[in-house]
Structure formats: C-alpha cells, structure tokens
Amino acid sequence: LHCTLEYYQSFKCFMLTDEGSSSGTKLDGQPVAPYQPVALRDGDLIELGLGEDQGAVLRFHSNVNPPDDVELQGGRLRLHMGFDPKETIRQVVKNHQMAAIPACDVFLSYSRRDRDAMHYLRESLVVSGFTVWSDENLEPGSQSWRAVVATAIEKAGCLVMLLSPDAKQSDWVGEELNYGKIHGKRIFTLLLRGDESNAIPLGLTGVQWIDMRAGYEEALEQLLRSLRAYLGQE
C-alpha cells in the first residue's frame, strides 16, 4: 500500500496520504510527508515511486476543491500526526492483509546478512513438506512490517532461528524472538556462524541448538526430525 486518496467529509475535499512508502510520493513536485494527509485540488500532479522507470505519474481530477477559509500551511491544507482520524480504507486494507496471511508450520527468523543461508534452508523445508514464512519481501522496521510479522508469528506452528553474530546484533531478530516467546511458540535454533560467545542472544542462553557449522545435511536431518515430532508430522 503506497498511498491513499480519501474524501474527508469535514473538509469537503480529497486528501492524499503517503503510507510510509519506501520510494516516496510527490505532489506537484514536492515530497509528501509520510502519514500526514494533504489536500488535493483539481489538476494536481501526483508522482508515485521513482519516476518513469519504477513509478507512476497521475493527474488528479475532481469537481470539489479544499475550502478557501481554512488555515493553510505551505499553501495547502495539511493534517499532522496527532490528528485522530476516523477509520478509513487504510484500516480496511490493513485488516484484509492481516487476514490474508496464511497459517504456516515454520516462521524463519534470520539476519539479512544470512539471507542466502535462509533461502537454502527454506527450500529444504518446503521440499520436506513444511509450509514456511519469511519476511524477505517486506521493508524491515516499517509500520506494515511490524503488523505483518506479528500476525505471521501468531499463526506459525513454531519459530526456526538462524543464529549468527549478525543475528545476535539484529534488533528485529530480537523482537521476533521476544514476540514468539510471548505467544508461547516453540523456538528451534540453528547455529549458522560464530560460537556461543558471539552468536547466542540473551533469552537463548542455555537452550540446546543444532550446529550447522560442521555439516549442513546432518544438521538439517536433525532439525527435520525435531520439527516432525513437534508438529505431529511423523
């Protein structure tokens, strides 16, 4: 969801809201601040994304314009954070997105620097008959990322964590670990890189982990046996 165009009855005009997009929104050549609705006028030019190659340019037409008797900032009516909006299509879309996230056997937690290893493990799990979810297509740290990841963890049968020095330093991996614990999820841990001193995060010290450093196939078989026993797929 890049942006929203919504009619505000109280102002009798349409307003444009950038929904925290990664590539930004412009209105008549000026950047639009995320999550701050700005009024639209007939004939406005809206730019989405990165221009001609990876975006879109839209011309807005409407028979209603913002009222002239409101206080304008920068020549336009703007609503800043702190404004208490009514429920809008954004919430409807968000609820639909959350409901569309399927239940899965395994939620994969990993550092972005271990992405190649995650891909390899994910394919191995899928080939072995497990359904797997990972956040690789989301923008880490964004508002939508948090909501989608939380829902995916809640719907997962268990968490599999790839441990490494980078994963230990990752705030997002730590949040996934804590959220999984809060919701009583079983957590399986694989030591991919590093050792006990620099790759095991707080909260997993003393937990038995599978060592992938010596041999992938043997470690994978051990993980598959554990997953099948826990998920009742033996």
Distance between the termini: 40 Å
Largest sheet: 5 strands, parallel
User: Would you tell me the structural class of the helices and strands?
Assistant: alpha/beta
Global Rg: 23 Å
- List the quaternary state of the chains: single chain
The secondary-structure element order is EEEEEEEHEHEHEHHEHEH
Outline, from the CA principal axes? elongated
Average pLDDT, to the nearest integer?
82
Tell me roughly what share of residues is in helical segments: 25-40%
Enumerate the spans where pLDDT stays under 50 for 5 or more consecutive residues.
69-73, 81-89
Strand composition percent = 15-25%
Number of helices: 7
Quantity of strands, as a count? 12
The main sheet orders its strands as: 9-8-10-11-12
SSE diagram, text form:
Elements (H helix, E strand, L loop, with lengths): L2 E6 L4 E6 L6 E3 L2 E2 L6 E2 L5 E5 L5 E5 L29 H12 L3 E6 L5 H13 L4 E2 L9 H13 E8 L1 H5 L1 H12 L3 E6 L4 H4 L10 E2 L4 H16 L3
Parallel strand pairs: 8-9, 8-10, 10-11, 11-12
Antiparallel strand pairs: 1-2, 2-5, 3-4, 3-6, 6-7
Brief synopsis:
This protein has 7 helices and 12 strands. It has 234 residues and is α/β, with parallel strands linked by helices. The strands form 3 sheets. A 5-stranded parallel sheet has the order 9-8-10-11-12, with helices on both faces. A 4-stranded antiparallel sheet has the order 4-3-6-7, with no helix packed on it.
Structure write-up:
This protein has 234 residues and is of the alpha/beta class. The chain is 32% helix and 23% strand. It has 7 helices and 12 strands. The chain has a 5-stranded parallel β-sheet, with helices on both faces. The protein has a 4-stranded antiparallel β-sheet with strand order 4-3-6-7, with no helix packed on it. The radius of gyration is 23 Å and the shape is elongated. Mean pLDDT is 82; it is low at 69-73 and 81-89.
